[in-house]
Structure formats: structure tokens, C-alpha cells
From TrEMBL:
InterPro entries: D27-like, D27-like_C. This is Beta-carotene isomerase D27-like C-terminal domain-containing protein. GO terms for molecular function: iron ion binding. Pfam families: D27-like_C. Residues 42-146 form the Beta-carotene isomerase D27-like C-terminal domain. It comes from the Eukaryota.
């Protein structure tokens, strides 16, 4: 994240966060989800917008409008929390290239969630699927503490270079190579 932060002046992220505070949570989350596949595809892989799923709540407990136009109409169509606030990363390049659950959790997931939640002011969670190499981004959902997050309790993959270098006794339980998804797809 340090590299990302050097791409803009120090005040830029604070200013951006201040502007975001002007909008309702559903609006920020839905727009972040809409631009993620466009802006991040080159880095992490193909992605598509979906409904956010678990963990998305609104402070007022209300359902969100289905569009900005519906927000202007008190009787406009409403959707449940999380509507179009998720992004499914179809096959994460970070996880696929490293083959390491620890790199996923410690180098990608945790810093990205922290950056969005603390620096940008938009709660965001990432839920990796270590079997399919998919990753579900959910904007508007507060991330769990590291000790409560299953992503940090996942055993290492057998093809992980850290596992090979450190040996299983130091790296933790390793998945059998037949159980890990194939890379290079």
C-alpha cells in the first residue's frame, strides 16, 4: 500500500475521503463496486459486479434505493443491503501466482481492507476462496479482526514456496497438491 500512497499527494486520500462522506454508504459502495472491474482488472484479473452478501448493513437499517433516480423518489424501488455492492474476482492473480494463502491474507487482503476502511473511509472486505482462487470483494461491510478471520487460519498449499523452504513443521498444515486448485488457468 505504501507504493499506492506515493502515487498521489499526501492530502489526496484525506480529501477523497472527505468528499465520500458527503454521500450515503450505499452510493459509495455501489460506485466503488462499479469501477473496480474497470480499474483493477489489469492487476488482479477479470471481475464482475454482484450483490455484496453478508456483512453489509446500513446505519439507519433501511433498504437502499436501486438507483440514484430511485433515491429521489420516496416511493422509489428499494433493494436489500449489499445490492450491487460486491465484486467477484473470478481468479485472483495474486493467489494463483504465489500459491500461498499467507501472501493472500497478509500482503493483499489485510492491507487492502485497511486502506479502504481507514484511508478512504469506505468499509470493505475481501473473502478469498482458496479452492477456486476466486475472491469476493464486499464494499460497505466492515472487515473482521485478523484473529476472527478464517482467511488467516487457512493452511498453506503444498506448492507454496514458503512451505517448501520452511518445511511443514514451521509453515503449518499443508494442503495436498491434489486438493489445491490448478494454477495457470
Amino acid at each position: 500500500m505504501r507504493i499506492l500512497k506515493t502515487l498521489a499527494p499526501k492530502w489526496a486520500f484525506g480529501a477523497f475521503a472527505a468528499i465520500l462522506r458527503l454521500f450515503p454508504d450505499w452510493f459509495k459502495a455501489r460506485h466503488a463496486a462499479a469501477v473496480t472491474p474497470v480499474l483493477m482488472g489489469w492487476l488482479v484479473g477479470d471481475a464482475e459486479v454482484n450483490d455484496g452478501g453478508e456483512g453489509v448493513t446500513y446505519e439507519d437499517g433501511e433498504k437502499a434505493p436501486t438507483s440514484a433516480w430511485a433515491a429521489l423518489d420516496p416511493n422509489g424501488e428499494r433493494a436489500p443491503a449489499g445490492y450491487k455492492q460486491g465484486v467477484l474476482l473470478k481468479r485472483c492473480r495474486v493467489l494463483e501466482e504465489t500459491g500461498c494463502a499467507a501472501v493472500c491474507a497478509n500482503v493483499c487482503k489485510h492491507p487492502t481492507q485497511k486502506f479502504f476502511t481507514e484511508d478512504i473511509g469506505l468499509a470493505m472486505t475481501m473473502t478469498p476462496n482458496y479452492e477456486t482462487y476466486e475472491c469476493q470483494f464486499t464494499y460497505g461491510a466492515k472487515p473482521k479482526e485478523v484473529g476472527e478471520d478464517e482467511a488467516f487460519k487457512t493452511p498453506c498449499f503444498r506448492q507454496c514456496t514458503a512451505s517448501t523452504t520452511m518445511k511443514e513443521a514451521q509453515c503449518g498444515n499443508c494442503l495436498d497438491p491434489d486438493e489445491a486448485p490448478e494454477s495457470g488457468t
